[in-house]
TrEMBL record:
Keywords: Cell inner membrane, Cell membrane, Membrane, Transmembrane, Transmembrane helix, Transport. It is a multi-pass membrane protein. It comes from Thermacetogenium phaeum (strain ATCC BAA-254 / DSM 26808 / PB). GO terms for biological process: protein secretion. The keyword Transport applies. The lineage of its organism: Bacteria, Bacillati, Bacillota, Clostridia, Thermoanaerobacterales. This is Type 4 fimbrial assembly protein PilC.
Length: 407
């Protein structure tokens, strides 16, 4: 993700100039300034406060569309079709309109003389980091076809694990939706009918009944406030999660949760191992690969640990050493990384690690789904039963009073 840097530099005349430049990292920012004949005196990232609204509404291209694109691109490159012709064909047949637009702009940039990776780099907000970095490596090494095939496999696996999670959680979410709809229907359609009966009776209502009537009144008479509250809650959560502070708090909270924490950890490790292996196999330098996986880790705690590992590698240390006290990476993962570093087969071991944790993630999600389903069904029964009992409690009391009066 591009970052804004504030700099102080001297031009060819020796004059001190200040300004800001947007770049991927400090090294890239310095290189961009050197191209403008500016010699950097000091440079530091600009600390943004609050929310970058472009990040809030930026829409990424789906991994399924990227997998299809990379595989088709690799096939055409392998067949010897010229690059611009490949891009033109892909733009015409792309089903995703945003991807189609990006490819059209990439074609225009390539026709102007830009490199392929530079052209795609203009669309970093919509494209994943791994795609940009591996395209750079593919261009430099002259192995664009192999790089695209690795990208296709990477995105296909990412899509596969996401689909497994979605399919496992579909039924629990369906049950939760039915539960909410049933409770709302009871409160809006059924309870108001009994409210009129209770008013005619003039009897004192028990606490559960008053609670249900209060909830029904809030839904029927102040429904617009609920809509405003839901909208405010949604935007508030979206805003909080788009800020670094809010995202960091949520990530720490998820890792501490009993069942969700291990699932988040396995998902992060699987994504890290798969992405890191693909980058290394494509010839991307280790430090640059670590910088990429740090940004796409999906968890700020894991990203901080990977940043520490990258700093250690930069100083000549082993990556596994910095992860020994990790809160995200389990001992098995750290030990396999250590073995890979010692034996010089880190990319192969990372592939095996990603396969293992992808299976673990799928199995954990299925187990979690099997636990959540009966809990949700029980919750529905409890809520509906509570509403039903609350409605009939005054009638039981009235019936008892009538029988006592008759005697």
């Amino acid at each position: 993700m591009p970052q804004l840097f504030a700099y102080r530099a001297r031009n060819l005349a020796g004059r001190l100039v200040t300004g800001r430049v947007e770049a991927e990292n400090t090294g890239t920012a310095v290189a961009l300034l050197r191209e403008k004949n500016l010699f950097v005196v000091s440079i530091e990232p600009v600390r943004t406060i609050g929310l970058d609204w472009r990040e809030l509404f930026a829409v990424k291209i789906g991994v399924r569309d990227l997998a299809v694109f990379c595989r088709q691109f690799a096939t055409m490159v392998g067949a010897g079709i010229p690059l611009l012709k490949c891009l033109d064909v892909l733009a015409k047949q792309a089903q995703n309109r945003q991807l189609q637009r990006i490819l059209r702009e990439v074609i225009t940039d390539v026709e102007k003389g830009k490199g392929l990776s530079d052209a795609f780099n203009q669309h970093r907000r919509q494209l994943p980091e791994i795609l940009i970095n591996m395209l750079v490596a593919g261009e430099v090494s002259g192995r664009l076809e192999q790089t695209l095939l690795r990208l296709a496999v990477h995105f296909e696996k990412e899509h596969e694990i996401r689909e497994k999670v979605k399919s496992a959680m579909t039924y629990p979410l369906f049950v939760a939706g039915i539960a909410v709809a049933a409770v709302v229907a009871l409160l809006i359609l059924i309870v108001p009918v009994f409210v009129d009966i209770f008013n005619e009776m003039g009897a004192e209502l028990p606490l559960p009944t008053r609670m249900v009537i209060g909830a029904s009144t809030l839904l029927t008479q102040y429904w617009y406030l609920w809509l405003l509250l839901l909208a405010a809650l949604f935007l508030g959560l979206r805003y909080a999660l788009a800020t670094k502070k809010g995202k960091a708090y949520l990530d720490r909270l998820l890792l501490r949760m009993p069942v969700v924490g291990p699932l988040v950890s396995k998902t992060v490790v699987a994504r890290f191992a798969r992405t890191f292996a693909a980058l290394l196999q494509s010839g991307v330098p280790m430090l640059q690969s670590l910088e990429t996986v740090e940004r796409i880790a999906g968890n700020t705690v894991a990203a901080a640990e990977l940043a520490a590992a990258r700093a250690g590698v930069k100083e000549g240390e082993r990556m596994a050493g910095a992860l020994l006290k990790s809160k995200v990476f389990p001992p098995m993962a750290v030990n396999m990384i250590a073995v890979g570093e010692e034996a010089g087969t880190l990319d192969d071991l990372l592939e095996k690690l990603s396969d293992f944790y992808e299976r673990e993630t799928a199995e954990t999600v299925e187990r979690l789904s099997s636990i959540v389903e009966p809990l949700l069904i029980a919750l529905v029964g409890i809520l509906v039963g509570f509403i039903a009992i609350s409605i009939y409690l005054p009638m039981f009391g009235l019936s008892g009073a009538i029988q006592g009066g008759a005697m």
